[in-house]
């Protein structure tokens, strides 16, 4: 119980997920062959899974699929991680060049089956596997079914979105990590507030100063969430980045003895005015183009690379722009998946009916 309490304190607002994950992975009978952890970004899926596995003492191999270029790279990294965990099988010790490298799901399953034949039960965690461009539902289904073939293996898939079409097989147990609410985000960020004044070795950090710092930090997080919670600061990490950026400007009047710590409305209004004035100055400066600073071809090429959109967003934006030229009444005709087939069937039926009438 003390282990769970420590996890609750380290990862607040995730008690239900910690309990579910612990109950599934510590079954006395048989562990599930696969487990799905899903939720949006910055919801604690990876960090909670690692903490629970470390706490209950189950051996696991972790693979960050975001660092893998291709699907084959994922398979190779998964196998090498398992080898590093349980040791190389007999007859395969040698140089890295001669070590086997799986190039498909079936090959990976066969190699892991030989590797884990007489080993202890392990867990293979594939983090962000749905973000890989080459991944398909067939490959994900094959990866999830490896636990059915290998008795000592449980595959944990950490994904962003989970639906019935993600896997073409029987649905494994899943744990949802919902997005944090405003109260939960403020509670999490309040665990490590920043100080108003600089603290050196000679200054004593009293409990009163800690309470003042925590109060002002909580007020700042709550106010910024109200303004930017649905846009730029949609998760805990983004909110923390924004608060860290604005915190020095917020506490500067307190350090200079212009306002008190409890004058938060005045502090925040001054902060908003300063940020608005700063953004206007940046906009005006960007509109001033001097003749002495004409960009070269190399600068333009570098600028294009800097402001390039993500891979899928670029093509989706182009497709939406081109589709906007069509009339809205033709959307079903041009973009519906079943419109062409139904239309062709109707036209064929009309032709057959016309021929029968003529006959």
UniProtKB/TrEMBL annotation:
Alphabetical UniProt keywords: ATP-binding, DNA replication, Nucleotide-binding, Nucleus
Keyword flag Protein biosynthesis: no
Coiled-coil intervals: none
Entry superkingdom: Eukaryota
Residues covered by the Origin recognition complex subunit 5 C-terminal domain: 309-352
Domain Orc1-like AAA ATPase: 12-156
GO molecular function: DNA replication origin binding
Subcellular location: Nucleus
Main location as per UniProt: nucleus
Family: Belongs to the ORC5 family.
Protein name per the record: Orc1-like AAA ATPase domain-containing protein
Organism: Orbilia ellipsospora
């Amino acid at each position: 119980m003390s282990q769970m309490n420590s996890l609750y304190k380290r990862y607040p607002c995730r008690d239900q997920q910690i309990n579910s994950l612990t109950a599934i992975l510590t079954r006395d009978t048989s562990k599930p062959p696969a487990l799905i952890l899903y939720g949006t970004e910055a919801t604690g899926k990876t960090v909670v899974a690692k903490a629970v596995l470390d706490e209950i003492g189950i051996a696991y191999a972790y693979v960050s699929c975001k660092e893998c270029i291709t699907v084959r790279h994922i398979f190779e990294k998964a196998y090498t991680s398992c080898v590093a965990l349980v040791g190389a099988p007999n007859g395969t010790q040698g140089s890295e060049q001669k070590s086997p490298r799986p190039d498909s799901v079936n090959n990976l399953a066969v190699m892991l089956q030989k590797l884990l034949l007489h080993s202890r039960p392990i867990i293979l965690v594939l983090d962000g596997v749905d973000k890989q461009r080459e991944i398909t539902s067939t490959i994900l289904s094959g990866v999830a079914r490896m636990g059915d073939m290998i008795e000592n293996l449980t595959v944990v898939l950490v994904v962003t979105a989970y639906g019935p079409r993600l896997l073409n097989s029987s649905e494994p147990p899943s744990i949802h990590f919902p997005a944090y609410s405003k109260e939960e985000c403020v509670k999490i960020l309040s665990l490590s507030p920043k100080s108003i004044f600089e603290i050196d070795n000679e200054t004593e950090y009293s409990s009163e100063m800690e309470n003042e710092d925590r109060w002002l930090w909580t007020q700042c997080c709550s106010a910024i969430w109200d303004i930017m919670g649905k846009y730029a600061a949609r998760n805990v990490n983004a909110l923390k980045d924004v608060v860290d950026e604005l915190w020095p400007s917020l506490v500067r009047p307190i350090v200079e003895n212009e306002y008190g710590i409890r004058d938060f409305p005045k502090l925040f209004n001054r902060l908003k005015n300063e940020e608005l004035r700063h953004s206007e100055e940046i906009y005006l400066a960007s509109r001033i183009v001097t003749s002495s600073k004409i960009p070269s071809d190399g600068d333009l090429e570098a600028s294009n690379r800097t402001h390039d959109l993500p891979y899928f967003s670029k093509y989706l934006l182009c497709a939406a722009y081109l589709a906007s030229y069509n009339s809205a009444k033709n959307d079903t005709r041009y973009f519906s998946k079943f419109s062409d087939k139904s239309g062709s069937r109707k036209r064929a039926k009309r032709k057959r009916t016309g021929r029968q009438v003529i006959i």
